[in-house]
Design goal:
The longest helix has 16 residues. By secondary structure, the chain is of the alpha/beta class. The strands form three sheets. The protein has an eight-stranded parallel beta sheet with strand order 2-3-4-5-6-7-8-9. The radius of gyration is 19 Å and the shape is globular. β5, α4 and β6 form a beta-alpha-beta unit. Helix content is 34%, strand content 17%. The protein has a single domain, classed as Metal-dependent hydrolases (TIM Barrel, Alpha-Beta Barrel). The structure holds (4S)-2,6-dioxohexahydropyrimidine-4-carboxylic acid and zinc ion. (4S)-2,6-dioxohexahydropyrimidine-4-carboxylic acid binds next to loops.
Amino acid sequence: MQTITLRRPDDWHLHLRDGAMLEGVIGDTSRHFARAIIMPNLVPPVVTTADAKSYRERIMAALPAGDRFEPLMTLYLTEQTSPDDVEAGKESGLITAVKLYPAGATTNSHGGVRDIEKAMPVLERMARIGLPLCVHGEVTTPDVDIFDREAVFIETVLDPLRKRLPELKVTMEHVTTKDGIDYIKASKANLAGSITTHHLIINRNAILVGGIRPHYYCLPVAKREHHRLALRAAAVSGDPRFFLGTDSAPHVDPLKECACGCAGVYTSINTMSCLAHVFEDEDALDKLEAFSSLNGPAWYGLPVNAETITLVRREEEVRFPAKIETGAGPVTVFDPMFALHWDVA
Ligand code: DOR
Ligand code: ZN
C-alpha cells in the first residue's frame, strides 16, 4: 500500500457561509486543513474589522469539538472601506488579506468595487503596511465574453494596478487561464496565484456537453482544455508562486438546479483525494506538499504547519457521498468523474 505524508495543508480560498450552512460544512475543512482564508462575501458582506471579528467568533463556535482550525479572515473591499480600519485589522492580527470583487463578478458581489480609483487610498495603505490584496480577477463589462473576463482583467485592471503600486502584494485567486499562469510566471515580485481543485480536473465541456450540468458551474467559469493543462503544469511544477485555494463554495441544490443557478462547486470534503489523484497522474506526487502545504504559508508569511497528514492509496475505490446534508439543505459534492483511490488516513 502506497502512502505519502505531508505537512498539514491549508486552503487559501474558502467559502464557509454562515448559520446552518457554516455548521454543515466547516467539519469537512477542519478534518484535513489547519487554516483557511475565509471569503467575506456573506449577505451582508464582511466589510469592517468588527464584522470580521464577529464572523470569526461564529466560525469558531461552529467548529466540531476537538478540531483545531484557524480561520484567516479577510475584508470585502468597497469604495467606502476605511484605510484606518484595514490597518487596525492587520495590526490586531485578525485580518490576513483584503478581497477585491469587481461589482457583479460573482455571488454576493453587487457591493464590490465599480471604480478602482475610489479604492486607491486603501490599496496604497495596504501596499505600505504589507497587507495582501486577494483578487477575483474578472472584468464584468457586458461587452466582454465570459470566457475572456480573466484575460481582459489582467490587461485592463491588474497590470495597470501593479504598475502603479508595485509594492502591493497581490494574490490572483482561482486562476483559470493560461494567460493568468503566464502573467504570474512573468512577474518579478509581489504576485502569486491560487488554483482550485476543480479547475485542475474539469474543462468547460463538463458544464455543457450532454446536457447542462449546474454542479460544474462556478466563477471564474472553467475554460478550454489547453487552459486546464496550463493550470496543471503550474500546480505540479513546485513553483512557489502557485498554491491551493479550493474556492469550495457550497450552495444548496435547489439554488444550483434551477433556471438561473448559483456559481460554486463544493470540494472541501474530497479535495485532498482529488489532488493526490491529479498529482499522481502527472507523476508529481513529490510536489503535492509544496502546492497544498508549503507555498501558501511562504507567500502569506506564516509558518508551515507542524502537524502532518498521511494519504493512503487504496486498492478499492474511495467513495464520498454524492451530497452532504446541512441544516440549510443538501449540497452536492464535486464529482471528479473518475474513481478516487487516495484517502486521508
Ligand atoms: O463559483 C464561485 N462561487 N465563485 C466565486 O467567486 C464565488 C463563489 C460563491 O460565493 O458562491
Ligand atoms: Zn471564491
